[in-house]
Amino acid sequence: MEAYLLAIAIFVAIFTLLTLGLNLQYGLTGLTNFGLVGFFGIGAYASAILTTHGYPVVAGFAAGAALAVIAAWPIGLVALRLRDDYFAIATLGLSEVVRVAIISEKELTAGVQGIPGIPRLFAVLESRTWQPLLLLAVLVAANLGVVLVMRRIARSPFGRVIGAIRDNEEAVRALGKDPARFKTQVLMVGAGLSAVAGSFYAHYVGYVTPDQITPLVTFQIWMAMILGGTGRISGAVLGTLLLMLLIEGARFLPDLLPFVSSTAMAELRVFVVGLALVLFTVYRPQGLMGEVARR
Amino acid sequence: MSLEISRLVKAYGPIRVTDDVSFTVPAGGLVGLIGPNGAGKSTLFSLVTGFLAPDSGSVSLDGRSLDRTGPAERARRGLVRTFQVPREFSHLTVRDNLMAAAPGQAGETLGALFLLPGRVRREEEALRRRVEEMMAFLKLDRVAEVPAGNLSGGQKKLVELGRALMTGARTILLDEPFAGVNPVLIEEISARVRELNARGIGFLVIEHDLAALSRLVTTLHVLDRGRLIAGGPPAAVLADPAVRDAYLGGAS
Ligand SMILES: Nc1ncnc2c1ncn2[C@@H]1O[C@H](COP(=O)(O)OP(=O)(O)O)[C@@H](O)[C@H]1O
Ligand SMILES: [Mg+2]
């Protein structure tokens, strides 16, 4: 049971990095990035490929983040000229491009089979029971660092302008500021952060496959952000935790309802999570941490 | 800084919303633009500030063409507009709305934010003082901490005006700045506009309050169905039969 709780805590910490990145992009700036998982995948695969070829863990993290940031830049230039709804579709499409590229680049990525045998973080301590605790501590520290950086951004002149962009882009232009520059930077920071989360994920799970980087992940992160309260940095943390509790809690349904067949149960779990989300958004639309987009 | 508007044409389908409009706002000028609803005044502002591309015609600032520049670049060159329907940053406080309008803040780049925190803090303090003054002048100081989306229509117009003034622009286009603003404040704002004008800032003002506008500006242009039908000193223009016709025609 302890190991199980620890595993959940580690997943929550990894996905919170993604939620914090989405909160910067959508919550603070209004960018509807539906392609988060693409950047997550770049990080996961960069770490998987490099570390299984004998490069150090740090190289995987750095290469993943750098690649994701570089990938975000042209997306910023091109996609930011699109209207919001097209931007959402374009980013969703791009994340699928990443997945399809991974599937077809068999020599590098092993295609649909994926890459197993990714070394765990702090592998030298593998035998120690506190190894996962150390990983969790590192993740918590990383999250704390990111929260501090996000706070600094949100309360800065930069944060003021991205908030203005979210509220009225034309008016920002009328005042002599280019929304595209700010949005591109936000997209690049979000991409780098998503890649770091992907690297952590790859090392923790130990293998990567294209199935891990479907749009479902993106939408779960959106749910987490909405649950926590869009625009609230602390909400990103709590929302991710709540979503994970909902999803994991639904696992115990079979024990409660032993007479339901296992295929029906799989659907019932999705239904229960969905119902909980709907109820939550109806009765607390502002999310756990309150009002939308107040700093 | 003189603004030259030259032969601007913009049509939606068969209708020319602005039809061959030309006039100049001289450096440090104080010019009014009136006309019935739908005459094309706001559209002209969008053409001049680069929010809309004209079908033909051109706009230049001090003899330099602006035709290939977008709205943000025009604003950086000192040409700033406000909007008839206020475009406040609704989730930002009034104070942040005004602070966001100041140009060239180091803290608006991520690099400086994390590498030069001291400089960012000093700039913020200086800017904050300027914004306090602006809010006091516009009688917005009591709502400094209120999200701009929660303000009354008149207060939103004042936020629009305050933001335009904060940009440090040399030529400012105001689209119905007095709509919904209380009469006492209208006189105070007019006084402030005159004061800024005396320091060399040019204004082009669209306004339906003809009395207030004619007291403010030295030149008045009249737009009717996309065409300029009169221009000159306010008293003469308002006495012009063609102008009276246009307004009566617009009202009927
Ligand atoms: N996007 C558009 N498509 C078609 N007609 C438009 C569009 N925008 C404005 N118009 C028309 O242009 C005319 C001028 O509008 P506007 O410039 O707002 O007038 P004013 O500010 O003088 O009241 C109006 O008749 C309006 O209906
Ligand atoms: Mg108008």
Automatic annotation (TrEMBL), chain A:
Keywords: Cell membrane, Membrane, Transmembrane, Transmembrane helix
Localization of this protein: Cell membrane
InterPro entries: ABC_transp_permease (IPR001851), LivM-like (IPR043428)
Keyword NAD assigned: no
Tagged with keyword Cell membrane: yes
Entry membrane topology: Multi-pass membrane protein
Main subcellular localisation: membrane
Tree of life domain: Bacteria
Annotated GO MF terms: branched-chain amino acid transmembrane transporter activity
Spans traversing the lipid bilayer: 6-24, 31-51, 57-79, 130-150, 186-207, 219-247, 259-283
GO CC field: plasma membrane
The protein's name in its UniProt record: ABC transporter permease
Automatic annotation (TrEMBL), chain B:
Pfam families: ABC_tran, BCA_ABC_TP_C
Domain ABC transporter: from-to ranges: 3-250
Sequence similarity: Belongs to the ABC transporter superfamily.
Gene Ontology cellular-component annotations: plasma membrane
The keyword ATP-binding appears for this protein: yes
Keywords: ATP-binding, Nucleotide-binding, Transport
CDD domains to which the protein is assigned, alphabetical: ABC_Mj1267_LivG_branched
Protein name from the UniProt record: Branched-chain amino acid ABC transporter ATPase
Single annotated GO MF: ATP hydrolysis activity
